[in-house]
C-alpha cells in the first residue's frame, strides 16, 4: 500500500488549491475532501526583499488567502493596531507543531470505503505532513492503549512477566499507527519528531490491577517498568520510527481519583526517585540518553510545584529535558506559572503535548462541524503559550469520526479532521487551519523574539513573532478576535519598514517577510 500511496501523491502545488466549503449550521464552514478532490495550501515562499506576504483564514470562510504587497517606509497613522517586532533579544527555540497518532486516528482512516481509501489516506497525509499541507513535524505516540482505543491493553499483558519476555507491539501498532507514521515520513520535507507517552503501565504492575480507576505502580515494578520503556524505544526504532522523546506518564495526577480512563498516579517525589534510580540510568545505559525525557504531562495549574522536587534534585535533574503541558485548565490558570517555571529552570524546555476542544461539551456538541470558536480557542492558546516559553504545541487526535470517537471510555471530543465513513469523505475543521498558521510557517529551530501590540483596537488582538536565522525568514502571527475588521501596521523591527494591511473580523493572519 505504501508504494501505491507514494505513486498517488501529486506534485507540489504552487499557490495551493481551494477549499470546497460546506455549511453545517455553525458559525463557519468546513472544507470537504473526497476521493477526487481536497484543498491543499501549496508551497508558500517567503517573498523577495521589499515585499511581505499575508496569509489569512477567517470566520467568514477565508482559508489561507494570500496577498503580497510592498513594504512601506512609514506606518499607517490611522491603524487600529500597531505591532512592533524586536530583533535585539532571543527567547526560546521552537521544536514544532503537530498531533497524535492515536488508535482512533488510524481506525477512522482505515474505516473509509475501500474504493476511496487509498486516495483519502493520501489526502490526509498530504494535508498534515507534506509541503503542500500544513507541515506537521512533531507528533505524539501513545505507548500502547489510551481511552482513544477500542480496548484496554499494554505491550505485555501476561501477569507477572517481570522479565518482559512477552513484550510485543500489538495489532494497533501495525495497523493503525506505524503505517501512517511511515507514510507521513515519506511525504514530509521536515524531519518527523515522535515522542511516546504511556497512559498506564501493564495492569499487573499496578496496585489496583486495573488500567483505570485509581492508584500507583507497585514499587517492586519500578525496574521492570523502566525496562518496558527501553523495549518500547527499541521496538519502534526497529520499525523505522525512532523516538525523539518520551513523557514519563500522561497526567500523573489523574490516578489520584477514580478516573474512568487509562491512568497511573505518580507523586512528584516518586517521579523524582524513579527517574534517578531506574528510568534515567536505564535509558542512558541502553543508548537512549539523547532521547528527550519530559515530566509532568499535565495541566499548567500544577506547575511549578509538581516539577520542583524533580528538578531541584541534581540526580534527577540530569536526566530530565523538559516539562510537558496540557491545555485543559488554561482558561482557569494564568500563564504566569509558565514564566515562573522557566525562571526557576531556564535550561529546561516546556512543550504543550495534548490539547483538544469539545472534551467537556454536551454529547451532541462534542463535534461541531465548522466551529470558528474552537479554531479561535486553538489560535489564542498557541499564541499565549508561545509568548510564555512554550517550544511547540501538539494537538490530540488527528482524525475522529462524526461522534468524536471511537473512545472506549465514552470521552468523545472534536478534531481538526472529522471522517464521515458513510459518505466516504472527510471534513477539515477551522481548527485545522488555525493550527496550520503555526505549523506551516514556523520552521523547527525558529527563535521567538519580542513583539508588542498597541493601538485603539488592540484589545481584541494577540500576536507572536519568530525569526529563522538560517533562512533569514521573519514571521508574525496575529489573531483578531474582534467582530470588526482591523487596520494593522507591523513594524518589521527596523523602524523604517512597515507592513500595512487590513485583517477581517474574527481572523488569523500569518505575515511573512
UniProtKB/TrEMBL annotation:
Residues 95-442 form the Glycosyl hydrolase family 30 TIM-barrel domain. Pfam families: Glyco_hydro_30, Glyco_hydro_30C. InterPro entries: GH, GH30_C, Glyco_hydro_30, Glyco_hydro_30_TIM-barrel. It is an enzyme of class 3 (hydrolase). The keyword NAD does not apply. Its EC number is 3.2.1.45. Residues 445-511 form the Glycosyl hydrolase family 30 beta sandwich domain. One of its GO terms (cellular component) is vacuolar membrane. Keywords: Glycosidase, Hydrolase, Lipid metabolism, Signal, Sphingolipid metabolism. It comes from the Eukaryota. Residues 1-19 form the signal peptide. GO terms for molecular function: glucosylceramidase activity; hexosyltransferase activity; signaling receptor binding. Pathway: Lipid metabolism; sphingolipid metabolism; Sphingolipid metabolism. It catalyses: a beta-D-glucosyl-(1<->1')-N-acylsphing-4-enine + H2O = an N-acylsphing-4-enine + D-glucose; an N-acyl-1-beta-D-glucosyl-15-methylhexadecasphing-4-enine + H2O = an N-acyl-15-methylhexadecasphing-4-enine + D-glucose; a beta-D-glucosylceramide + H2O = an N-acyl-sphingoid base + D-glucose. One of its GO terms (biological process) is steroid metabolic process. This is Glucosylceramidase. The lineage of its organism: Eukaryota, Metazoa, Ecdysozoa, Arthropoda, Crustacea.
